[in-house]
Specification:
This protein has one helix and eleven strands, in the order αβββββββββββ. By secondary structure, it is an alpha+beta fold. Strand 9 and strand 10 form a beta hairpin.
Length: 155
């Protein structure tokens, strides 16, 4: 009885491991990237803004637009406001990406800024290995993003 139970568990667990590996490794995937500069309304660079890539899609259940993060290496803008962000091995093949800009350090970067999202098309810039890796897609031009300052709250 014990041997039969062990054989059954081994078969079930082995099948689950193989099927999960198939999904992870046998799915088309690509890398996505964007670069550019963030400034305020006066043209001054804004350092310390968190930049993230996401895929925007319509949620049939809620009837709303939602975002799916692209599991990328989040980055913050540098002292000159520049950024480069890349998502690797993303399983979907969107023709555009949404770049999210979030002020995470408050007043430290010259004021508080409102969050902003910019949806931009991507183009293929290099081929993958010919198997499941379909290549690298990039926002074709450097982005120039102007953030709006958050309204001051009077006490």
């Amino acid at each position: 009885m014990r041997k039969t139970l062990l054989k059954f568990l081994t078969a079930v667990l082995g099948f689950n491991m193989v099927s999960s590996c198939f999904y992870l490794y046998a799915s088309p995937h690509a890398d996505f990237e964007a670069k550019g500069r963030v400034s305020d309304g006066d043209g001054n660079p804004v350092p310390g803004i968190m930049v993230d890539l996401a895929n925007k899609f319509y949620n049939d259940q809620s009837g709303e637009l939602t975002y799916e993060p692209m599991d990328n290496e989040k980055t913050a803008t540098s002292s000159d406001g520049s950024f480069y962000v890349r998502a690797t091995d993303y399983l979907a093949m969107p023709d555009s990406v949404t770049v999210l800009f979030t002020d995470v350090d408050g007043e430290s970067n010259g004021g508080e800024f409102l969050p902003k999202e910019v949806t931009v098309p991507v183009v293929k810039v290099s081929d993958g290995d010919g198997a499941w890796d379909v290549g690298v897609y990039s926002v074709p031009d450097d982005m120039n993003v102007i953030l709006e300052k958050a309204p001051e709250v009077k006490k």
